[in-house]
Specification:
Blueprint lengths: L14 H8 L5 H9 L2 H15 L16 H26 L2 H9 L3 H5 L7 H14 L2 H12 L5 E4 L15 E5 L4 E5 L7 E2 L10 E10 L2 E11 L12 E5 L12 E5 L2 E4 L9 E2 L5 E2 L9 H31 L18 H36 L6 H29 L11 H10 L7 H20 L10 H5 L11 H28 L4 H7 L1 H27 L5 H21 L1 H7 L4 H18 L3 H7 L4 H4 L10 H10 L10 H11 L4
Parallel strand pairs: 1-5, 2-5
Antiparallel strand pairs: 2-3, 3-9, 4-8, 5-6, 7-8, 10-11
Helix pairs in contact: 2-3, 2-21, 4-5, 7-8, 7-9, 9-10, 9-11, 9-12, 9-21, 10-11, 10-17, 10-18, 10-20, 11-12, 11-13, 11-17, 13-15, 13-17, 15-16, 15-17, 15-18, 15-19, 17-18, 18-20
């Protein structure tokens, strides 16, 4: 059985869904426990969801948010955020585990269930606090963390500017040290230097970590973090020299209160520069950190979180589209037969089933990346920085590839639901607005792929120099001069083929840079001329790692699983690998021993897998164990009563609260009677 709270007592289940669930060949609870990590973890999640979702103060207003004004949406989001974090603090006091509780209510599946279109206080926990913890001295963390943790102050993270985003070295905001007063003076010298985009900056936050160019003794030392008070703690009025506001409506996340911020000779004390790594002494002497890599921490942390969140958004979308596809009947496969469940059309299966598999791939990659992040940051505390560049590189490309795939996947799910998927009440447009935003925040995806490419080029040079490579790029050593074996109907063969493609792409990009340099082009321009190939190499590097991680996780877990669930997970692993192989069949033909007939074999393999997964499709979706309050969709509820829910939601439109709108008498009737 699926999660009991999805089943409202007395609610009739759509008969098509009843029949679909009877086909399932594995125990749904076992899949749920597998995804959560254990039976105990599932119980803990259920308790957490019940704790938050059953709280009356955390229920949205009766009027759907799409009918509220922008101002009303923000005010409702603040009410909900305050109630939410009061509840988190209460849970923290009762049971501990504060960090995990905050992560769950800000991201994952629970966060969007509580605040569907973003959280105006999110950056306080996701970036403001982690930056102080990661870059502040012991004295600074002692002063600021308790205030922030207890929500005595609300902070945000102000890095991106109107004119500069991912290229943070180009930021224009200045922080000039005045030795006479032992203060930094912050200024926004141009319009493009205004901070732009930070969540919560518009009206919610009264403090910010501001990233600015540091000037001391007439010299610029590059970007550094500063704690800056923005608003009066009592009145919330902007302080002198602070120019602040909200940037306006967006495709999605319209209650996150994204803001702008300018400075006009704003003075802050010297100890408001975060100085765990780099320092400025009282006389203005600048002391540089032993390694610039120490400042990576916060950005890497956020990218790690984004991979998990992207997978969660995709999971929600495939739940909605798969349940709807089992309920919706449209057309006939054979004339004279009843209308067909659209899930029986192979084209529909091709849209949805690989996306279910894609969720598992990124779910496992997110867990793997989180463990790697904790391992390497632990090593950093002990002074070991050797693997930090590898973590940075894999986090960059995983953020880029996962958000690109998951945003495209959510849109595919919307299209798979036909016209009803266009309804806000389907929750697919809102989910798309959330996931597609991640393609550009915390590093635009193409730029992040090129950051990974820099690491790949350095790794290839290290390989040529005879140095040992780090684990995520070790395949270069294996496949540089070795051909892949002939096609085999095995996931291992596809992993080998993707690794061979990645190694060849890295080699080709490296050689093309060298060729252009030999022709007289500056290295930087040679890099730019080769950037399309470099981004493609980073993309394939990421995909090879994702598939290898997926394969490893499925194989290592099989001994602890039932045979039935093991078979289903193997099918999903194979489907994802074949789907990726076909998607990049041109690269396989170009760089490996693959021939045209092999692509035909892959296509036949894919179609066989679709048929294998078909009986268990709804069971897999039920195994995701998302409460209806989390799915928030008229199309994706557990009971499958799609049309009833659509009609109920339609009645909530303010235009349906009166039989005749005043515009008829004011405008339309005079127009109709004007005898034009």
């Amino acid at each position: 059985m699926a999660y009991n709270n999805n089943k409202n007592k007395g609610t009739k289940i759509n008969p098509d869904l009843v029949r679909e669930r009877e086909k399932c060949t594995f125990r749904i609870e076992e899949l749920t426990n597998y995804i959560d990590g254990s039976q105990e973890a599932t119980a803990e999640r259920h308790a957490r969801e019940q704790y938050f979702l059953d709280d009356p103060s955390l229920r949205p207003s009766d009027v759907p948010s799409e009918y509220l004004s922008h101002k009303e949406k923000y005010e409702e989001a603040i009410r909900m955020s305050v109630a939410l974090f009061r509840r988190v603090k209460q849970l923290q006091n009762e049971k501990g585990g504060a960090v995990d509780n905050y992560r769950q209510v800000l991201g994952g599946s629970l966060g969007p269930a509580l605040l569907a279109d973003g959280n105006p206080l999110g950056l306080h926990y996701v970036m403001f606090l982690p930056t102080i913890l990661g870059q502040g001295t012991l004295e600074q963390t002692a002063e600021w963390v308790q205030k922030a943790w207890n929500l005595n102050i609300i902070g945000t993270y102000a890095q991106t500017e109107l004119g500069h985003g991912t290229f943070i070295r180009g930021l224009e905001t200045t922080a000039t040290y005045d030795e006479k007063t032992e203060e930094f003076v912050l200024n926004s010298p141009t319009l493009t230097s205004y901070k732009w985009w930070p969540g919560g900056l518009g009206h919610a936050s009264n403090y910010a970590v501001v990233i600015a160019q540091l000037y001391t003794q007439g010299k610029c030392h590059g970007i550094h973090p500063f704690i800056v008070q923005l608003r009066d703690e009592e009145t919330n009025m902007p302080l002198r020299g602070i120019k602040i506001g909200e940037i306006g409506c967006k495709l999605g996340m319209n209650v996150t209160n994204n803001g702008y911020l300018g400075f006009d000779n704003v003075r802050i004390p010297r100890n408001h520069m975060l100085m765990k790594n780099n320092k400025v002494l009282k006389d203005g002497t600048y002391i540089k950190a032993p390694s610039s890599k120490l400042t990576y921490g916060t950005m890497i942390f956020v990218r790690v979180v984004i991979v998990e969140d992207a997978a969660q958004y995709l999971k929600k979308a495939v739940i909605i589209a798969t349940r709807y596809s089992a309920v919706r009947r449209q057309s006939q496969i054979k004339e004279g037969e009843p209308e067909t469940q659209i899930i029986d059309f192979v084209t529909q299966q091709y849209k949805l089933f690989p996306l279910i598999a894609t969720f598992f791939a990124y779910y496992h990659s997110a867990k793997w990346l989180w463990n790697l992040y904790n391992q390497i940051t632990g090593e950093m505390e002990g002074g070991q920085l050797d693997r930090l560049p590898e973590l940075h590189a894999i986090a960059c490309c995983l953020k880029a590839v996962s958000t690109a795939d998951c945003s495209a996947g959510v849109e595919t799910c919307r299209l798979a639901c036909g016209g009803h998927g266009y309804m806000i009440s389907s929750n697919l447009p809102t989910t798309y607005g959330l996931v597609t935003a991640a393609c550009t925040y915390e590093g635009e995806n193409t730029v992040l792929l090129l950051q990974t490419a820099r690491y790949l080029v350095k790794s290839y040079q290290a390989f040529l120099d005879g140095q040992k490579l780090t684990p995520t790029v070790s395949y270069i050593e294996k496949y540089k001069n070795v051909s892949t074996p002939p096609f085999q109907k095995r996931v291992e063969w596809i992993i080998q083929a993707l690794e061979k493609v990645a190694a060849c792409k890295i080699e080709k990009a490296y050689n093309n840079i060298q060729r252009r340099v030999k022709k007289g082009l500056a290295y930087e321009h040679a890099w730019n001329e080769t950037s399309v190939e470099l981004a493609s190499a980073a993309d394939m590097h990421c995909r090879a790692n994702v598939l290898a991680i997926f394969q490893d996780k499925v194989q290592s877990s099989k001994p602890t699983l039932s045979k039935e669930l093991g078979v289903v997970l193997q099918q999903l692993l194979e489907l994802y690998s074949v789907f990726i192989a076909i998607r990049f069949s041109g690269d396989l033909l170009r760089y490996t021993n693959t021939i045209g007939h092999d692509i035909s074999e892959l296509q036949a393999w894919l179609e066989d897998l679709l048929a294998c997964i078909r009986p268990n499709a709804l069971g897999i979706i039920d195994g995701f164990d998302m409460r209806d309050e989390v799915v928030r969709s008229t199309l994706g509820s557990y009971d499958g009563n799609v049309y009833e829910r659509l009609f109920i939601e339609a009645q909530k439109s303010p235009l349906n609260q009166e039989p005749v709108n005043q515009s008829f008498h004011k405008h339309l009737k005079p127009f109709l009677q004007s005898n034009m």
